[in-house]
User: What shape does this take?
Amino acid sequence: MSTSGMFLVKSGASVGATNAAGETPLHLACARSDMAEFVGELLRVGADPGAQTISGQVHRCTPVHVAVEQAGGGGIGDGDSGGGGHDVLAALLVAPSAAAALDLKDSEGRTPLSLALEKGMLEVAVELLKGDGTSRQP
Assistant: This one.
């Protein structure tokens, strides 16, 4: 877990701040398999799981898309690609604000569910389908 990140969040740092590519702290945390606790803290203080990166700078996506990639072992950006990102995805899906993000599309027109199915990540797809208790279409 990011001790310095937790310190910044607890000290009032903006969880909606973005870098030049439009990535928020939540995007960056979701790219690492060891950040589930930090992801939960970011969500608790208002981070938006539906925040979109800036198309053209990077592959436009939400933190949920990033967590799906990470859970499948294909981390985005500089994150760890060890494939242990199921905890990060689970931390995202328990947040009430994540439900709306499940329907958002990336720059290739994929929802997090269709991304998981396209990449053959069946366990991840099941997690997404159970995520907010509603029926989802790929």
Notes: The longest helix spans residues 122-131. The helical segments are 3-10, 25-30, 36-44, 63-71, 86-93, 98-101, 112-118, 122-131. Residues 15 and 47 are 5 Å apart (CA to CA).
